Amino acid sequence: MDYSQFLMMPQELGLLLVFLLVFLFDTFLPKKAQSSLSIFTCVVFALFTIANVFMAGNGTSFSGMYEQTSATYAMKLILNAGMLIVLIQATKWANSEFVAVRRGEFYELLLATLLGMYIMISARHFLLFVIGLETASLPLAALVAFDKKHYESHEAAAKYMFTAVFSSAIFMLGLSFVYALAGSLYFNDIAVNIMGGQSALLIVALVFVISGVGFKLSLVPFHLWTADVYQGAPTAVTSYLSVISKGAAAFAFLVILAQVFGSAYSAAWEWMLYAVIVLTITVGNLFAIRQRDLKRFLAFSSISQAGYIMLGVIAGSEVGLASLMFYVLVYVFSNLAAFGVIAAIENKTGKVNMDDYNGLFKTNPWLAFSMMLAMFSLAGIPPFAGFFSKFFIFVGACHTGSVAIYVLVLIALINTIISLYYYLLVVKAMFIKQDECVIPTFKVACSEKVALIITTLGIILIGLASCIYTYLAEAASNSSAMFMFIH
Amino acid sequence: MELSLLMYLIPSLVMFGCGVYGFITRKNMIAILISLELMLNSVDINFAVFNSYLFPGQMEGMFFSLFAIAIAAAETALALAIVINVYRKVKNVDIKEITKMKF
Amino acid sequence: MFLFLGLMTTKLSKKVAGTLGTIGLGACLVIGYTAALTYFASGSLEPIKVLDTVWIDFSQIAEGFSINLGIYLDPISAMMLIVVTTISFLVHLYSNGYMDDAHLIKYGHEAEGGVKHGFQRYFAFLSLFTFSMLGLVLATNIFQMYIFWELVGVSSYLLIGFYYTDPAAIHASKKAFITTRFADLGFLIGILILSYYTQTFDFDTLINGSSSAISTMQGTSFLGCSVLCWAMTCIFIGGAGKSAMFPLHIWLPDAMEGPTPVSALIHAATMVVAGVYLVARLFPLYLIAEGSLIVITVVGAFTAFYAAAIACAQTDIKRILAFSTISQIAFMITSLGVARPEYHEGVGYMASMFHLFTHAMFKACLFLVAGAVIYRVHSNESGKMGGLHKYMPIASIACLVGCLAISGIFPFAGFFSKDEILVAAYANNTLWGLWMSMVAGMTAFYMFRLYYLVFWWDKPDYEAHGHHAPKEAPMVMTLPLIILSVATCVIGFLPFSDYITYNHEPLHAGHDWTVIISSTVIALIGIGLATVLYFKKNDKPAKMANAARGLWTAANKRFYMDELYMFITHNIIFQTICRPIAWFDRAIIDGTMNMFANITNAASYAIRKFQSGSIQSYVWIYLVGALAIAVVSMLCLI
Amino acid sequence: MIWSNILIYFVIVPLLVLGGLAFSKSMKAIRTVVVTGATALMVLAAYLVIEFLQIRAAGVTDEMVLTGSWVWYAPFNIHLALGVDGISVVMIVLSAFIVFAGVFASWKIDPLPKQYFLWFFLLSTGVFGFFISIDLFTMFMFYEVALIPMYLLIGVWGSGNKNYSAMKLTLMLMGGSAFLMLGLIGIYFHSSANVNELTMNIVEIAQNNAIPHSWQMWLFPAVFVGFGVLGAMFPFHTWSPDGHASAPTAVSMLHAGVLMKLGGYGCFRIAIYLMPFAAHELGWIFLILTGVSVVYGAFSACVQSDLKYINAYSSVSHCGLVLFAILMYNTTAMTGAIMQMLSHGLMTALFFALIGMIYGRTHTRDIRKMGGLMQIMPYLGVCYVIAGMASLGLPGLSGFVSEMTIFIGSFQNSDTFHRVFTIVACSSIVVTAVYILRVVGKLLYGKVQDPHHLELTDAVWHERFATIVLIAAVAAIGCFPNFFESIIKDTFTPGGIYDGILATIGQPLPWM
Amino acid sequence: MDSVGNIIMYVVIALAIIVFSVLTVTTSKILRSATYLLFVLLATAGIYFQVGYEFLGAVQIAVYAGGILVLFVFAILLTHRPDAKSQPLTSEKRWLGLSAAIAGVLVCGYALIKQCDVVSATLGSSDVTIEKIGQALLSTDKFGYLLPFEAVSVLLLACIIGGIVIARKR
Asked: What's this model's pTM, rounded to 2 decimal places?
């Protein structure tokens, strides 16, 4: 027994420390001091994020159960960045009258789920992975139900919970089959044991495993919970769900595909994944067209974005990995900008309908501007970051060079037109519709403003500053061992 | 007569099927949760019997079952809390109550 | 001499007031005369390239292949130089009187205060035209000719449509431009074919230097004819359009909607003969492509007759003159068509140019007379005129001179030139000779019909309509008439055959007395007939018209050619091509694009049921979806 | 150093204008900023021409001059690679002109002038960036930068059915760019025979000439259609009538004048020169389409009653001619194509400017409701006639020069197929005359249809200024074409990257 | 060759699982459903005992039967309303449920049967003592589960907090 191995996972320990600090603050400090909990959390988390820079390290611990590579490290950094923005954004909401009593729990749960995601990303053993996955999803149900005023919040939580448990049951069933085939739950062992094997059981196992992770990533046909939950959950939680949770799941997905099932790779799977990607992008887009509720709208948009993220997964290469991480990073900023605006307006007026945004530019030009940038970035319009991430993810996908993947990319590209259509609908509502705006001019809270500035700057700069992608590409190529079974 | 692995898998699979059936058909949310328990339970059986039949030398499957039980407990607790929460809001645990958001 | 183009260019950009324009043109006149006379006096008839600058370079296609701009002097261009500058100068002069304020206001096309502007505009256009026409005649290469060809077309358009508030004028200008544009398409294609084989546009090279390319063209056959033949015919189509040959003549009569001096300048003397000039310019090539010469002859001969026949039945004096112009140009064209080196050393070529020259003088004269009359009577209709010889004696005499000239009565200019044409026609084929003689007789008839109807016939009651009694036009208008009349009397004696020949060698042919006498007799018969019918008011013409009602109406309606064109353009092209295309564009192409959007929307609506809100259906889809994927993958594997 | 390259300033100046606009408060300040910016661009463009001529005069025969390359995204070998040849130089000059005139044409834009000019200059950033780049990625990026502001410019400041038009335009153009992006990615992955030396630099790609023929056959249509949509190629042109009809004046100018040229330029620079094999094999299909475009657009224009629709269809026809000439694959026709881009850009801009000014006064664009405007606003009338004359190919104005160069060049292809299509394209000059004269006749001549129009005024100084600039440019090209043509033609010096495509001249078509 | 007792045991357990599973999801009374679930859970523990995982079986009984089921019963009693009529099951819904369940079982069963080594395997001799379990649970070596053990504690803590948040009135 060598407990020093825990020191190999400094990021998790750090996060646990943050969690504990917040927990203690919440539990033991007097009522009066409670109101500063938000700031405290933000600051501590920001410090932790900065400290993360010094926590880079490579290597496995717990005999291969846990692995830290430069890619996982980078991914955790991205999640941290997103988390920080979410925390800042949520400050206003967390301090609002109805939520303030449960402020501490809110932060604790958020941090706990983030820890789950860390575990998920770094886990190289399915048991640990399942625990990470559940840690990342179960407390979220509680967060979804946070808005006790609104019935939708409860409905969303129930839906989330039931489907999540169902999904995890299916996932674990798949795992049991994997176990039957490989006799171990260590990723490396499985990969070695199933190498080159092609059996019906393996396919069923793979599909079930994919469905479990795909559920988190909301791939079609495992996506149906997404819209309802996003719509019902408090906006802060929705934004968290849509970016952080999704980003971690995407990375985990890539890890599982490459490191576990990469050794038994076959054309049959390829088609399966292609079908899922095409469906995800298309269905997400088709549903998004009709939505008027902005949160629901962004839910469907995020489904189709998940499809694009998957393009980086199927690339199965360092380029794909780098593109995926970059895509997630950009997506974090873009989507959080959008949610930031929505949250700001919702906190003030309670309006989330697209029709309420008509003429927003006249009353709140800066909010409209941020929203527009977010929409453009999500649609992949240069010079905003979304363009770069989309381009790179396509390049990453095409890296494999088969004709089929070009067709897939073409379908994805055609879908970008549909997505552009509905993103432009929002822009249209804000800028072009000349109606009298129902949202009055108001002053955005300081915390929200900070978050919006960060995200807007991110949208503009992440693409233009090539160093970020270069860094991720380097991290990816340092982690090329991930793909040893594919190449 | 030898009790082969299949003999144990059949009840497990049936249990799983029942769980699925129950999930889809039951109207009471708690009944749905009960169905979910069936599914989770069947997975545990799978792990255990795979372990003992196929890989008797180690305990991976058994441990997975062990942890799965713990996780299932947590899930159930949380799910029940949510159900009760819904009940408090609408005085009902009918699954129809949570179909407001759609399309 | 080198300043020529530059001078013209400055004229183009100025909004010249009338006098300034006239003075400028006077300067041109002087320069033009100096140039031409110097050239003729030099004794050598070899062409001179005064200026030749590269405008667009195509040296990547072939060495020396370029579009140049320059000045090219040879006998015919020098002659044209004289014609253009003379007529243009006189018309400028005349316009100073014609386009006075009262006239402009009568046409009411300017809002108050805009009158002066219209006057300037008129002179600007006129100068633009003169510039373009000079550029055309002095072109060093076929492409330069095309360039200025287009420019004269545009100036013609602008001038015809000068009264732009008048729908008829607008319509006429459009018609003129589009018809000639259509013809120019032929010209362009001809140029393209020609230039592809010869890799040059230059006249000199085309005619002398590229015999091998030309023989290649002759050797290459396309749809039964040699490529050269096609090319030359296409080029002739261009010329036919400008020169209003049948069936592209329809624009010219309508073009009379423009101010009368413009008609005199453009639509009688200069621009319309550009087609003749073009054929003459490329005559050596036409000689090689004999097929196209036959086309030219047939078209020319038919048009001559056709236009003459229509002219007999028109009542609008300008229309009569217009058809007469068509007919006379057809004479020139025919003359070129029948010219062959073996017959009298190609006298037809000389005759054509000669006729061009004389026709310019007397037709301009006739138009200016018509202008003077219209200026005073305020109408184009011959029915509203009559007996004007008392009121406008000078105009009357000028008109008589013009009519005699066009009829071919000695010693007026037309006699000499028409005579040569007939000689050429007889020399080629007696049939052509007889045909052309007949047309010459008709010419005499309708011209005198016009003369009598305007100046004799009956005297309507001018005061009755509240107008003043007509009187002689002002001096600026009569002076050109006198000059032109005098010119008409004397220019016939110019020794054309010494200078203007297709091979730059003086001609040695004498006069053919049989032709001279016969043509004079025919002309006299025509005049006599006209005198009998129209000298005094009587009902014989009406009776005759009634006797051949169908023919009369057909001729009066110009044999329904305009209706045919209207039918083709409006009903066929607009209704069956443009509208369907426009509809197709909106409904099918655009519809398809919209359909994509609609399909997307419909699909979006159709699949919304999957999102039913019930988690039980969610998990059903979840599980069945997963199983389906698994099954399909398994099937793939097996 | 990147700042020592003059080309980069074509992007920086508009960006500075954006910055300046952000801090401008009053209308006066806005105008000062935009006029300064537009003038600076003009000056830069003039300087560029001089510089370019000097370089060429010094005997430099490189395909691209003033090149510079700075690594941007190393993992994909993406550079910020700049460079111009004669074609880009004239396109830059064109853009500078249109932007300059556009600023004056939108002098009194209302509402939100600041935002309007922000988007306007963002668009021009894209345009200039596209023309100065020789890196596929940056080209594509700038291309899209130029596209998207259109949506808001039309949507907010447009007229008529603007929502629909703006959406349609944006979606169709982005649809095109979807194909384009695929094509570019395909090109990138086959840009070099060596997998480790993949490049985005078009000069290098052309030199490597490593794209397998089988791939070219797929990538060429993708790229060509992608750019063809923007070049209003039949049957992907339908955004153009609606879009132009709804766009505000200066946006129509910029869009028809410059943006549509991006399409032609892209087809030319990327589709054809990077994939000569497929260009030759498949060119005839597109030749048919563009040939159809030419006559089709012209015929459609004949029966329209909205001024902008007429002009939009006319643009379809003229831009069709651009692509048509490019597909002729010979130096003269291609030179003509570039000239046609230049000429069409200027004269369409002029047209749209005038239509905008007329619309601004009469508040209708229906020619049936107008008439006799020549009496009321002679200045605009005369300008309109000049624009019309340029459009129908009057010698001395730009249209003639370019069309003739195209026709002469096209006719050098000696097979019947090309000949027939050349003649078909030639015939468009007649149809063009028909619709131009029709609209001139109805709009400017004749009786005044609406008595209210009698009270309208003629152009004011900024409008006059905008039109004079454009007319001067149109006339300059028309009178001194050889100056421009020689700049363009330098590009096709033998031995350069264009040999691949030029070698296909005269080879029989695939099915012959 | 298994002993007869074992086989009888097996038959009883298997039958109990199948019958009570079906009853659990078909009975219309929710409390009965919970009761049948208890039997299923106990039978499952029986399987664990049969394959030699006594500890697992004990945990199963303690946690599932003893803990979770009590929760269920509490919840049922909390939410039970005697007056609530349960609507009859629609045939559409039943068909949906049956199709999904049967399809799932068939696909999994087919995949398992195809895998011959899985089907034909016999029970190996495993010696799972509490000591070994304890060692493994706190080991950091291969097949040591210290990290999951710690991680699951975080999960449980988070779930507790979550449960509190949800259950609190405000």
From this structure: 0.89
